[in-house]
Specification:
GO terms for molecular function: hydrolase activity, acting on carbon-nitrogen (but not peptide) bonds, in linear amides. This protein is 32% helix and 20% strand. By secondary structure, the chain is of the alpha/beta class. Helix 1 packs parallel to helix 3.
């Protein structure tokens, strides 16, 4: 069995400071590569690009390609696979001028090539008025230097059918960038149990392992 070394980056993005957050992410990727990691995974919205209360919020979401290209170049330079967390991407239909904001992640291989792309389907409460969930039915699974990989984002982990679909396609690794805080339980939940979000995630992951981590026949 081939063993892979994976670096999972924890960072708290500063709202609206895309360039500064990107530079911090770059330093983490370089550190992971130096430590011999085969893959580094950044958090969801790691650029601090999802803060709707910021008046420049939507303008910032147009520039995701600049950072995606930079990560591709860095992956090739450091010879490391990169999942750059997720980006808030603002797309505009040229014909209808209709705008669509999505939460999207990518798998970049160690040669800087994009091997996979995934748009979040199941949105968390603050996203729902603003972000469009993926319109595609299938969960993509694709070949990478680490084997077959599937990707989800944050709240997607609460839906076992997504895992089943990916495993049925042969996924050996499922990557889930997330931006999750203890305060996401809101005042009522935090008052009842300050660690309620941690308990929820631990229980959810445990159930997934117990219930569906079986190779399909």
């Amino acid at each position: 069995m081939t063993m892979h070394k994976i670096a999972v980056v924890q960072m708290h993005p500063r709202p609206g400071e895309l360039e500064q957050n990107h530079l911090r992410a770059v330093s983490f990727i370089r550190e992971a590569a130096t430590a011999g990691a085969n893959l580094v995974v950044l958090p969801e919205y790691h650029l601090g690009d999802f803060y709707p209360e910021n008046e420049n919020f939507r303008k910032q979401c147009v520039h995701y390609e600049k950072y995606l290209d930079a990560y591709c170049a860095l992956a090739k330079e450091c010879h490391i696979c990169v999942v750059p967390g997720s980006f808030a991407e603002l797309h505009c239909n040229e014909e209808t001028q209709e705008e669509r904001l999505v939460n999207c992640t990518y798998f970049i291989d160690h040669d800087g090539a994009i091997l996979g792309r995934y748009e979040k389907k199941n949105l968390w409460h603050p996203e729902r008025p603003i972000v469009t969930g993926s319109m595609h039915d299938a969960h993509p699974c694709f070949d990478t230097p680490l084997g077959k990989v599937g990707m989800l984002i944050c709240w997607d982990l609460a839906f076992p059918e997504a895992f089943k679909e990916l495993i049925a396609q042969g996924a050996k690794l499922i990557i889930i960038p997330a931006f999750w805080r203890l305060t996401d339980a809101y005042d009522v939940g935090v008052k009842r149990n300050p660690l309620s979000e941690r308990v929820f995630i631990d229980a959810t992951v445990a159930q997934l392992k117990k219930g569906i981590w079986v190779t399909p026949k």
